[in-house]
Specification:
- The complex is a heterodimer.
- Chain A is an all-alpha fold.
- Chain A has 13 helices and no strands.
- Chain A folds into 2 domains: 34-104 and 150-290, Orthogonal Bundle (MetI-like fold); 113-149.
- Chain A has helices at residues 5-32, 36-43, 46-79, 85-91, 94-97, 100-111, 118-135, 154-179, 182-190, 195-224, 227-232, 243-252, 256-290.
- The longest helix of chain A is centred in the C-terminal third of the chain and has 35 residues, at 256-290.
- Chain A is flat and about 65 Å long.
- Helix content of chain B is 76%, strand content 0%.
- Chain B has 15 helices and no strands.
- In chain B, helix 4 (70-103) packs parallel to helix 10 (182-194).
- Classes of the chains: A mainly alpha, B mainly alpha.
- The interface between A and B is large, with 95 and 102 residues.
Chain lengths: 292, 307
């Protein structure tokens, strides 16, 4: 038996309790002082419901897009050679390392109607609408009258959440792809499977557990995200107000109980995600262990 | 040694690749690579380039003017001060927790592992909120800290003029919470993979616990530890949401660098905001460069638990 078990475990538990567990329990204790009807009134009024819909919807959409492009990016980074591959590989972690406030102001500026990407999008959408209008085409209904905007809309929130979730899928898939045995694919090819069949029937089933883990990680991260969204959303109640922002707004107006009640709802959702992630990781490990 | 071996491999490589059946046709490869590159450029390079472009757009002179204002300087100092407190505390915790979790088997071990990860799952806003609930003017300890109606503890704390929320201690506590798991997260899988054999050997040869740790364990984990510390530091210096809740945004006093960026941005001082942002973006690039360096020197095992 190595020495130091009592010391390190005792210290870890004390520190964990002081910094994490006791403060977190404050949120639950504060909420337990509310009556049930007060709790429902604080967490189920229309403004809060609208924020849940936006937060969960945008996080789900962002995590889905990350799953598709993350799978593709991880595939390209592990399997193909191209110039600058090392730099791209290193850059995947940028959303982790870049502070959210910096990402927030950068994305907002790029996608604003005067920005690098938002600018041309806005101008051309207006011109296209004008042109379609002059031709009397029905397609004009597809374009919004005020032009396509990304910053200060719900789509901007989705974009910011996609940015911050990008590394999760790539980094969960990459080690699994690197460890895949080429024999499996060779056998599949020898047995006459096409490349597409090999991917969908042999490779993809093995990649599914880490892909779902990556999705859950990106979703959980997006759900709580605040820094990058606060800039790119216009933070209008009912329209572009995500749940963490609503908690902040309530706190700002000294509505401590309401803020804490919403926080408890979000915390419970986050803990459920943590549980799902743990189960997925266990599934992925048992899959990896049982594969030939 | 490497020279002849690689040249042999090169000579042995057939002109027509043998494994054509286990890779995709060239056009598929090019298409997939192309899509991935466009995605990377749009989502990673453009935002980073934008930060530096906006920072220097109005000239280098204005860039350094923005960084040398009193408020910016105070924000930089506060950010460094918070990092100097938080990073060592979380590093000591990380090493202790990794030692306990990776070297021993005990009941509820996986529960403890989950609890260490807990701060990652909590929204930064909630991380700030919980400290406001405890230490704020209307929180549990608020009355003890601000009013004199609890004569004993209240006057004692008042005598020292201790303020937590809307002050530096609150910023430190909220930052400790959000950067809590990084070092532990990094070390636990690494120390588990390395096992206990070398430590047992050291103990058998007569080393005591501390000697074993300093001379055997620490040299084995130093790169993983270093990477955990850099990640923890990046998060500490860049934290925005949690700090925003507890700081109160008092200029020159409780504004860290990310909060100062927000103030400037909301004042429409774009160049100044991006000038300060470029410092943090530079820090992020150094973090990524060090990560790549460690991976290149020592393999992925040391930077595996980046998530």
């Amino acid at each position: 038996m190595l020495p130091g078990f009592g010391l390190t475990l005792g210290y870890s538990l004390t520190y964990l309790g002081l910094i994490v567990l006791i403060p977190l329990s404050a949120a639950f204790l504060k909420t337990s002082s509310l009556t049930w009807s007060e709790f429902v009134a604080a967490t189920c009024n229309p403004r809060v419901i609208a924020s849940y819909k936006l937060s969960f919807g945008a996080s789900f959409a962002a995590a889905s897009v990350n799953s598709v492009f993350g799978l593709l990016a991880a595939w390209v980074l592990t399997r193909y050679q191209f110039p600058g591959k090392k730099i791209f590989d290193a850059m995947v972690d940028l959303p982790f390392a870049l502070p959210t406030a910096v990402a927030g102001i950068a994305l907002t500026t790029i996608y604003s109607p005067k920005g690098w990407i938002g600018g041309p999008l806005y101008d051309y959408s207006l011109q296209l609408r004008h042109w379609l209008d002059s031709k009397g085409s029905n397609l004009v209904a597809l374009l919004p009258e005020e032009g396509i905007r990304i910053s200060y809309t719900a789509f901007g929130i989705f974009l910011a959440l996609t940015f911050i979730g990008l590394p999760f899928v790539v980094r969960t898939l990459q080690p699994v792809m690197e460890d895949m045995e080429p024999e499996l694919e060779e056998v599949s090819a020898t047995l006459g499977a096409s490349r597409w069949q090999t991917f969908t029937r042999v490779l993809f089933p093995a990649l599914l557990p880490p892909l779902l883990t990556g999705f859950a990680l990106a979703f959980a991260r997006a759900l709580g995200e605040y820094g990058s969204v606060v800039f790119i959303a216009s933070n209008m109640p009912y329209k572009t107000e995500i749940t963490p922002l609503l908690i902040y707004a309530q706190l700002d107006q000294n509505k401590y109980s309401q803020a804490t009640a919403i926080a408890v709802v979000l915390l419970v959702a986050s803990f459920c995600m943590l549980l799902v992630i743990n189960l997925l990781q266990r599934w992925a490990q048992s899959r990896a262990g049982s594969s030939p | 040694m490497a020279g002849p071996a690689t040249s042999l491999v090169k000579r042995a490589r057939p002109i027509v690749p043998l494994r054509r059946s286990t890779t995709e046709p060239p056009w598929v490869r090019r298409l997939l690579t192309g899509i991935a590159l466009v995605f990377f450029v749009l989502f990673l390079f453009v935002p980073l380039a934008e930060v530096f472009y906006e920072a220097f757009r109005k000239g280098v002179g204005l860039y350094f003017d923005a960084l040398s204002t009193h408020d910016a300087w105070e924000a930089i100092k506060l950010t460094l001060f918070v990092a100097v407190i938080c990073v060592p505390l979380n590093t000591i915790f990380g090493v202790a927790a990794a030692w306990a979790i990776a070297k021993y088997r005990f009941p509820c071990r996986s529960l403890l592992l989950t609890l260490v990860d807990l701060p990652f799952a909590v929204s930064p806003v909630i991380a700030g909120l919980i400290y406001v609930l405890i230490f704020g003017a209307r929180g549990w300890w608020g009355p003890y800290m601000n009013a004199g109606d609890h004569p004993w503890l209240g006057s004692w704390l008042n005598g020292y003029d201790i303020k937590v929320i809307f002050a530096v201690p609150g910023i430190v506590l909220a930052t400790l919470f959000v950067s809590f798991p990084f070092v532990a997260r990094e070390l636990i899988p690494l120390m588990e993979a390395q096992g206990n054999d070398e430590e047992y050997a050291a103990l058998t040869l007569g080393a005591n616990g501390w000697q074993t740790f300093w001379r055997v364990t620490l040299p084995n984990i130093k790169w993983g530890l270093f990477y955990g510390v850099i990640l923890c530091n990046a998060r500490t210096m860049g934290e925005f949401g949690a700090v925003s809740v507890v700081s109160g945004h008092i200029r020159g006093k409780t504004n860290t660098l990310p909060l100062h960026i927000e103030v400037l941005y909301n004042d429409y001082q774009m160049s100044a905001a991006f000038a300060c942002a470029s410092l943090l973006a530079f820090l992020a690039m150094i973090t990524l460069a060090l990560k790549s360096f460690i991976e290149w020197r020592h393999g992925r095992a040391h930077t595996k638990a980046a998530l």
